[in-house]
Specification:
The protein is of the alpha+beta class. The protein folds into two domains: about 130 residues, Arc Repressor Mutant, subunit A, CATH 1.10.10.2910; about 120 residues, Beta-Lactamase, CATH 3.30.450. Bound molecules: zinc ion.
Length: about 300
């Protein structure tokens, strides 16, 4: 059944709103037809945004009696994210713009994930981003798409990004969150860490924003061809994560995907010491069971 704005009236969080939309729109196609969805949810029109330094905007009032989305011209994937972000502001009535009647959002706003508890504006921007990410990459659709990709591999990111029509970074973020294996994906530029997206079970990543990619990393070994994921290579875990003294270190793999303009993604994938052994034990048990069954026949 097509969703309408009334259906979302009681929802306040991005997660709740998206889950309601997905309930009503159980056959939502991928890539999500975001502009169509906006119109269905009472966005009247889209206009090009020309204000320097801003990616998107929303013209509306406090009752949300009308809504126009403003979006900067550019890559389709980026436009789609901006549109979804502005729809998020529109659907969350507790979002109040700095200037009456108009939200204006910058590139930094579009990347904001965390917020200081006390900063209302930061919190709104982070919520609009969570909404955009969830509606363009609906978790049930992503989980389905990840099914053939049980072993983490950076080569999946460009493919999935194309399928969902989102940027590689937006996909990297969702991939790190939703992959069944603990991974972390770092966005780097000119050898420095810009952002890090990680699975909830992945340990704390030591190099922080602005820090150089560690000297011993695969990133610095050889030339990485653009738009081709390198083979995964084992690395010293201490390069990226803290290994407590006396504890057996997990096995850590790195993979690099070089992009243009000095950007590169680095994926870290963890295998716990027992994971391999446990898998071996399971295989062995399985072979015994099969063996016994065989004998009985
Ligand atoms: Zn915003």
């Amino acid at each position: 059944m097509p969703v309408c704005r009334m259906d979302l009236a009681d929802a306040g969080s991005p997660e709740k709103i998206v889950s309601l939309i997905l309930q009503y729109e159980s056959n939502l196609s991928i890539p999500v037809p975001i502009e169509e969805l906006c119109r269905q949810l009472d966005i009247e029109d889209f206009q090009d945004l020309e204000s320097e330094g801003f990616e998107g905007g929303l013209l509306t009032d406090s009752d949300r009696s009308f809504g126009f989305i403003l979006v900067k011209k550019g890559y389709e994937e980026r436009r789609r994210f901006t549109i979804a972000h502005e729809l998020g502001h529109f659907l969350m009535p507790h979002h109040i713009p700095d200037r009456e009647g108009q939200f204006l959002c910058s590139r930094a706003d579009m990347l904001r994930l965390g917020a200081k508890e006390t900063d209302r504006r930061e919190r709104m921007e982070a919520e609009a981003n969570r909404f955009a990410s969830l509606i363009l990459i609906p978790p049930p659709a992503l989980r389905l798409a990840l099914r053939p990709y049980r072993e983490p591999d950076l080569a999946h990111i460009p493919k999935l990004a194309r399928d969902f029509k989102v940027s590689k970074e937006a996909m990297a973020r969702a991939y790190a969150q939703h992959h069944e294996k603990p991974v972390a994906i770092l966005v780097t530029r000119h050898g420095k860490v810009l952002r890090c997206y990680k699975h909830i079970q992945f340990p704390f990543v030591v190099p922080s924003k602005g820090a150089p990619v560690p000297a011993g990393s695969l990133f610095h070994r050889g030339l990485h061809e653009q738009n081709i994921a390198s083979d995964p290579a084992e690395c010293i875990p201490d390069l990226w994560i803290e290994v407590k003294r006396g504890e057996r270190a997990p096995t850590l793999y790195e993979q690099v995907y070089a992009q243009r303009d000095g950007f590169a993604l680095v994926m870290l994938h963890l295998e716990h010491p027992d994971e391999d052994e446990e898998a071996e034990e399971r295989d062995l048990e399985e072979s015994w069971r099969i063996g016994f069954r065989g004998k009985r026949r």
